[in-house]
Amino acid sequence: MFLFEMLDNSILNVALPTIGRRLSVSTAELQWVTGVYAVVFGGLVPAFGALADRVGRRKIMLLGLVLLGAASLATSLVTTAEQLIAVRAAMGVAAAMTTPGSLALAFRLLDEDTLRVRATTLISTVGLVGLAIGPTAGGFVLAFAPWQALLLVNVPIATLAFIGIRRGIPANRKNELPAAPSTAPVPCSARPRSCPRWSHRRCSSTRAPHRFSPG
Fold it and tell me: By the 8 A CB rule, do 8 and 135 touch?
């Protein structure tokens, strides 16, 4: 999926003049068409990576593939620049959901460190290749197909990836997911130093009451 995410991000740049003529959009709107994908993708990758660690990487990646296919299919209905920007934003969300799982699921399938290094190298190399050949592939497709075809190609790819992951990779068990961090207060006696100011009252309340004995 990393290949097609990089390919999709670069292939659309060639179609910008065609999109501008067909939808009658301004230069600023065309910048939003390309920029909103990168902004949404970069901003949500850490969040979806953390969420995938909690609920399961396979589950988040499958949901991302569904969103990617639906957003790409919606391209055929786009008639305005605002609609295209919304579609590209949804595709950025889908890419943020699938990217963390691509490498994590590869590590889950491979046990040896050597194979994991090879898988990481292959995924990175293939992504860079997609980034490089995107403009050439986009120009070739535009020679005989409308610009919507550049994004509609994601629909069969997302479908095949969804079927392959669902059948080939088992779901995470509960004991395989990391436990949520504990929010229970730490007793003062377990802390290495004296209690901080905010817990002074709690520390004082746990001490035995002092009794004054006359004489």
Answer: no
Inter-residue contact 155 to 73 (CB < 8 Å) = yes
Q: How many CB atoms lie within 10 A of CB 142?
A: 17
Q: How far apart are CA 104 and CA 200, in angstroms?
A: 44
d(C-alpha 104, C-alpha 113), whole Å: 13
Backbone angles phi, psi at 212, to 5 degrees: -90, 125
CA distances from 101 to 49, 65, 107, 201 (A): 8, 11, 10, 46
Give the residue with greater pLDDT, 166 vs 169: 166
Closest listed residue to residue 106, CA positions, set 40, 185, 39, 165: 165
Show Cβ contacts of residue 78 under 8 Å, excluding neighbours closer than 6 positions.
23, 84, 87, 148
Tokens 């067909």 belong to residue: 22
Task: Give the burial string for 157-196 (b: 16+ CB within 10 Å, else e).
Answer: bbeebbeebeeebeeeeeeeeeeeeeeeeeebeeeeeebe
pTM for the full predicted model? 0.72
Asked whether residue 172 carries a pLDDT value surpassing 60, the answer given is yes
User: For the purposes of burial, counting CB atoms within 10 Å of the CB of 12, is it exposed (0-12), middle (13-18) or buried (19 or more)?
Assistant: buried
Distances (CA, A) of 117 to 111, 114, 169: 11, 5, 20
